[in-house]
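Can anyone check this?
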Amino acid sequence: MKAARPIQVDSDCEGPLCLNDNAFEVCARHIPGGARFFTQVSRYDDYLADIVRLEGYEAGSTLKLIVPFLKAFGLSDAEMLTFSRKSVDMVPGAEEMFSHLLSLDVPAFVISTSYEQFAHAVAERLCLPLDHVYCTSLNLGVVSLPDSEVGEIRDLARQIAGLPPIELPESSIEALSSATRESIAVMEEVFWRRLPAMKAQSLIDSVQLVGGEGKARAVRDSLKMTGNSLENVIYIGDSITDVKAFELVKNGGGLAVSFNGNRYALDVAEIACAADDAVALSMVIDLFARCGKERALELADSWPDEKPSQLSLLNSLGVATTVVQRLESPTTHGIHLGRVTGDPKAKIRMRSAEMRVLLRGRHIGTLG
């Protein structure tokens, strides 16, 4: 069966399709104190992108900033590829969702800030052609660091990991605590003065990032491949790097869907799915493909809390049997669906945050 109209699905990788945060995991494995180090750099990234809104700065630049540290602690391109392939942890139902898209003859694209080694490993699991994958390039071998820089960069990593936690308010820069201001001042010294004076800066510059604006550009490029218009796109994301793509698709008449998204994603998405299984996304995609955006929004508005009522609703809407069967599985539970409102305390928002932490762990689930 084919979709009733020519739609396409553009999806982030980490969150909607897999449970990993590959860059976090690589740092935790290869850098002493790497989990704390990555969290600090990630929150500094959020600070620049969302609070300062630094002109020309792209959300997701954490993946540029950490590269000299990965290099200094001895990570190679070969090790990165091996680790990425071995560590892929798919969201339950994600592979079935892509099989359902194939049955509908719906083109799908992965648009990810993830390093290419990891994004390509996920694409292989999904049987997705690599020309349908947009991701961040990483070549650790492109620059050799002198021994003097290696030692200094390792010391900087330990310094960053030992800083007071960067805690970001949802309001303004004036609400930052004194401890957070102290940590940010050190970050600015490291990333805007110390590293630019080193050869390591050329390693940062070599990374071709697919971040906030880059994801919006990737959506436009994917439309050139399919000949579709924005109103035919579902974009699925979960974090700050998806905001620009959400805005582009939503303003063009397409559908912006958050899957276990954080507050950045929920501020701009139209539908929020909070679920332990990608069947929640399959339902929305199925209706969007057959009946259009308004019917998908109606599903979010009318979604019941109890599974028997959910099954009854899907059957009445004529949702594909394979999707209904997936929802019937005893391993699938806790699916919540709703239209995103302006109220930050709305139930679907709280459930989305809770599911994000439940599935991906507190370290990854609380990252921007």
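Reply from J.R.: I decoded it. The chain is about 55% helix and 10% strand.
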